[in-house]
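Let's practice the habit of predicting before peeking. Look at the sequence and jot down your guess about where helices and strands might fall. Then scroll down.
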Amino acid sequence: MELDPIQIRVLGSLIEKEITTPELYPLSLNALVNACNQRSSRDPVLDLTDDEVRQALHSLEDHDLITTAHDSRVPKYEHRIRTVLNLRRDETAVLCVLMLRGPQTPGELRGRTERLYAFDDISSVQSTLDRLASRDDSTNSAVDTGPVVTVLPRQPGSRESRYAHLLSGTPETISPQGNRPSVPASEALQIDRIAHLESQLANLAESLAALQERVANLESGT
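Done guessing? Here is the structure:
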């Protein structure tokens, strides 16, 4: 199973919204396009069209990774990745953020998963990453997946390694995001604080998106 970047963005957005805005989940096509293209908590920021997202949904359905709910006037979509890959809640949170924001260090992941799962400390994030990276085909999942996360070669001058998901196959050599220098482990606390501010900003964006969706539903009579 090797998913392309649009499929990854669609699947990651569905996972995120199920946890952060359960009252609006499953998502309509319009809500899903907005989630894929939102400016916060996304790296890179994309500008996908309805047709691109629709095509990705069809492909994900072929992989049995999403289902379509027909309990309203418009089709709505939900993911099945926890069932297919037999993921725990903490594993789902880490994988989701890796899908939406690319390779990250354990410190970055701890702050950026805050809305999805509350990790006690960086070591608990590391334990989750280790489990995801050491899975084998004997894992009791719906498909034989093996590892779904890998550690990337450490960048020159870095004391922390970054991790990437494997749902798109083995990553090629990846440069640091935005060519920013890697952050030393001694600054992990500062990373957490910055990530917390990012999380608060994302929460505000989520609240605005939820309000816009409610207004749209009222106007459409759904």
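How did you do? Residues 37 and 47 are 5 Å apart (CA to CA).
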